[in-house]
Amino acid sequence: MNPLRKLTCFSISSLLLVSTTALAGYGGREIKVMTQNQYIGADLALLLAAPQNQFNDVLVSVLKKANANRFHDRAQRLATQIAKERPDVVALQEVWRLDCKDLATPKAGKGCKDPLIAGAFIDQLQETLSALKTKGIKYKVVARVKNLDVSLVKIGNLPAGIPFTVNTFPALLNTIDRDVILVRSDLQAQAVNLKPVCPTKISFEGCHYQWVVNALFPGAPSGLLPIERGFVIADVKVGSRSYRIVNTHLEVRDPTPDPATRIFQAKQAEELITTLKNTTPLGKTLLVLGDMNSSPDDREIPGIIAPYWQFVEAGYIDTWTLTPHSTPGYTCCQAEDLLNKSSKLYERIDHIFSKQDTWVENIHLVGNRQADKTLPPGARLWPSDHAGVGGELNF
């Protein structure tokens, strides 16, 4: 054989071997993750902006909508999606718990048991875990952050909560909003201790942001109810690799209830990015999941960098952009009543960010197809007003 040809063949073989070895570094699945905003079933912005003389009617309207939007049924469809995806980690936002207590002698079909609102009083986290169990898969709650909490409201001599009347019958509402990290039960995982990070803003295993919108609310401390937002972090081991998983839900962009909410969400993103920079140890593969309420289409406002672009400028990779897609990947939002026949998703605000270079084997929307809607009987509903995002990432 010609020596030059022999050398060339050896070089090509060596390159193929190197390439094969490099690809083997991505060998199969490394981690599968999913983010999903669950949705309470009604637009709370109307409640926060309601005049005091209309507050009761608006609150009852919100409860009726949440009842009609049947979270029990939606949880089954969300669980079906999770069972299909089999993610190692699920980041959930807007995981609500609504409780009701009658303020008069309980009567069948009255107050909290009024059929127009009774289905609204539900713990979405427990419903989700139960639905997953019926699908034959087990997830554990590793970390939570409690956001909005109306038990801060105290009016007169009544117990903490929001008093209201439905069909003239008095009752008391308590509710909390949470962001939660679920991890497959067979994986090693633990919540990161955030007390040194936010000693005065700790909430369950998570942190509240320093920047928080306050809504005028009778009975709340100083007449203001904090619309808390937060983040929660967990360390998860999948195979031989250790991951640090972050879940957050940033403030909305719209000027409700405060016209400065874009400033608040930008400050929250800045706080999270700084916290992760200062606390993530070497050797941890860092992933940030959640409802950022920020899109790559966000226009620049003087003095304000939108959260999406803050993450990109800080070196985070928007994993959606690493593979070609035939659709823009919009994740928000369906109609408030979830009854729209065709999808109305129009912006991409739910994200999976990676701080390390990654090869994305697959990333796609979840819960955005007609087949994903709730099943009869009853009107067919979208599982949430947000589509979820599922990704299979290799490092």
In short:
With 395 residues, the protein is α+β, with helices and mostly antiparallel strands. Helices cover 23% and strands 30% of the residues. Helix 4 packs across helix 5 and helix 6 (261-279) runs parallel beside helix 7.
Q: Which CATH architecture of the domain at 72-97 and 137-147 and 176-394 would you pick? A: 4-Layer Sandwich
Fill in the CATH topology of the domain at 72-97 and 137-147 and 176-394. Deoxyribonuclease I, Chain A
Number of helices: 7
Total strands? 17
Outline the biggest β-sheet: 8 strands, mixed
Shape, please?
globular
The average pLDDT score comes to 91
The named CATH superfamily of the domain at 72-97 and 137-147 and 176-394: Endonuclease/exonuclease/phosphatase
Give the fraction of residues assigned to helices: 10-25%
Strand content: 25-35%
- Poorly predicted runs of 5 or more residues: 1-28
What order do the SSEs take from the amino end to the carboxyl end, as H and E?
HEHHHEHEEEEEEEEEEHEHEEEE
Distance between termini? 41 Å
Which class best fits the helix and strand makeup? alpha+beta
Q: How many whole angstroms does the radius of gyration measure?
A: 23 Å
The level 1 CATH classification of the domain at 72-97 and 137-147 and 176-394 is: Alpha Beta
Organism: Crenothrix polyspora
Pfam family, one: Exo_endo_phos
Keywords: DNA damage, DNA repair, Hydrolase, Magnesium, Metal-binding, Nuclease, Signal
Domain Endonuclease/exonuclease/phosphatase: 66-386
